[in-house]
């Protein structure tokens, strides 16, 4: 039937291209003047931003304090290893669960809201987590944070890989990204994802056709916090430490900028583009000027003013102009 | 005598000190088209809001198929088989017409927390969504975005979304609002074609339209039902005569 909804493949060519790009990075990244650790950082932010976009792009729910859950994941990972002595897998699992629980708790207080009130509440809660991280010295290490987190050996049962080198970390972060990106790709095309998008566009109507709106908003927040927690855990592993700055308002603002600049509102891959673009801009612009964030901020403002659909949106309209075809709906395809 | 499909008694609603409904009752029999008319600001839409869960009534009782549904949330009422359209349109604007109806299907409701399967492969949902579009004459626009449709098509989709939820009882709030003669004619045909498939309660200003479709009509004025009966009986009503002269 021509009018039927387009089916979503399990994996798209984009998944493969992104995976290949990063998998081969150890061989070319130093040749273009960059370094493997940068790849790790980009991947961490890609995971964080992709999970964040479930909330912002698909749910239309602006969380401006999402760094808190990234931070909860980072601290939980570090604490699990330092205080409980858990291995890599259990520490990762605990980090995800801790971030999801923190998210579920916050979501319970904010999910009846939307728009600016929602955003303000997320900022307030985000600051609470940051404050706890700074003040609860005996657990979090205060301003210094958690130090001396180890990079344990990655044990797959049939083989074991040390994560000490940054290239190994890069491959590990890539594996996590592949899992997350497939999971979220499935999610946004599932009945759940469809209903979530509908709720973004019209909460009232969604309730009147029988969907439990509150539960969707609550669960979308919780899921995106779980993903943020995973990103935070990998960040802690890579940095071998966790510190209050990872849950600061800055951090929360960065992920919003990445998603918007990349085009998360119109494309599933927008956040990925945004994360790559942001970290590269930080490194490349940062090499020339201390004030790189100012330039980036100006760019961000320009984009919001003139091309709110971001880089992915610009690419989409460029392609639409190149291949004139009957314009069909779909939004976040 | 079987019980009515929907029965509302003694409904009252006030906003602050503004009394909008007082002691309103309604009985809707299965299979009928029940009209509701009345001047602007009479309280017709508020009556729908109270029946479908948007507002809780201050007093009174609503039963649907014998079950007390007074004051339930919109979602709970919808899940029991009551759907509504809106006077001001309420669509999922960025989605295609097909997704608009699909999201409303009971199949999507049942599978709503399925995070992994592809929604496009839920055949029962897609088929029902397509049938709803066909019912309102929009099958050719299935893959057009809701916000890109013409005003008349959006009006039709508004009904299509309600139909896709497979309701036993359908509330339509001024489905012809803003339409010209031709559009009104199309919606009249559409509603006529739904007769007997689903029970309908229909708010309408256009008397010719309403008198041609409804089996029974209630006239609401100042938040009260001032007259009710078959279209024939109501033609003799002085209020109706006066306002049809005006129209
Ligand atoms: N939420 C509200 N708060 C305060 N007053 C309200 C509210 N909703 C409706 N009213 C008032 O109640 C009265 C009835 O409104 P309602 O929308 O039910 O009328 P209606 O019969 O549907 O009119 P129309 O034919 O114009 O659609 C109006 O005077 C309106 O101003
Ligand atoms: Mg009205």
Specify the helix fraction band of chain A.
55-70%
Query: How would you characterize the largest beta sheet of chain B?
Result: 6 strands, mixed
Enumerate the spans of chain A where pLDDT stays under 50 for 5 or more consecutive residues.
327-331
SS-derived structural category of chain B: alpha/beta
What is the arithmetic mean of pLDDT of chain A? Answer: 90
The largest inter-chain interface, given as chain pair and residues per side, is: A-B, 37 and 51 residues
Task: Count the domains of chain A.
Answer: 1
Oligomer state equals heterodimer
Distance between the termini of chain B: 38 Å
Number of strands of chain A: 2
Q: Going across the biggest sheet of chain B, name each strand in turn.
A: 6-7-8-3-9-10
SSE-based structural type of chain A: mainly alpha
Q: What is the number of helical segments of chain A per DSSP (H or I, 4+ residues)?
A: 15
Bound molecules: adenosine-5'-triphosphate, magnesium ion
- Please tell me the overall pLDDT of chain B: 92
Q: In percent, how much strand structure appears in the residues of chain A?
A: under 5%
Rg of chain A (CA only): 20 Å
- Classify the beta-strand content of chain B into a percent band: 15-25%
Task: Characterize the largest beta sheet of chain A: strand count, sense, and whether it forms a barrel.
Answer: 2 strands, antiparallel
Shape of chain A: globular
Task: Walk me through what this model shows.
The complex is a heterodimer of chains A (333) and B (247). Chain A is mostly helical. Chain A has one domain (13-248). Helices cover 70% and strands 2% of the residues of chain A. Chain A has helices at 13-23, 25-28, 36-58, 67-84, 88-110, 115-135, 137-140, 166-189, 191-201, 203-208, 213-239, 249-262, 270-288, 292-306, 310-322, and strands at 153-155, 160-162. A two-stranded antiparallel sheet of chain A has the order 1-2. In chain A, strand 1 (153-155) and strand 2 form a beta hairpin. In chain A, helix 4 runs parallel beside helix 6 (115-135). The longest helix of chain A has 27 residues, at 213-239. Chain A is globular. Chain A starts with 12 loop residues before the first helix and ends in an 11-residue tail after the last helix. The relative contact order of chain A is 0.18. With 247 residues, chain B is of the alpha/beta class. Chain B is 36% helix and 24% strand. Chain B has helices spanning 44-52, 74-79, 97-103, 106-110, 123-135, 151-164, 181-194, 207-213, 231-235, 238-246; strands at 6-15, 18-28, 33-37, 59-64, 67-68, 82-84, 169-173, 199-203, 216-221, 224-229. In chain B, strands 6-7-8-3-9-10 form a six-stranded mixed sheet, with helices on both faces. Chain B has a four-stranded antiparallel sheet with strand order 2-1-4-5, covered by helices on one side. The longest helix of chain B is centred in the middle third of the chain and has 14 residues, at 151-164. Chain B is globular, with a radius of gyration of 18 Å. The mean pLDDT of chain B is 92. Adenosine-5'-triphosphate (ATP) binds next to strand 2 and helix 1 of chain B. The site of adenosine-5'-triphosphate has 12 residues of chain B, from strand 2 and helix 1.
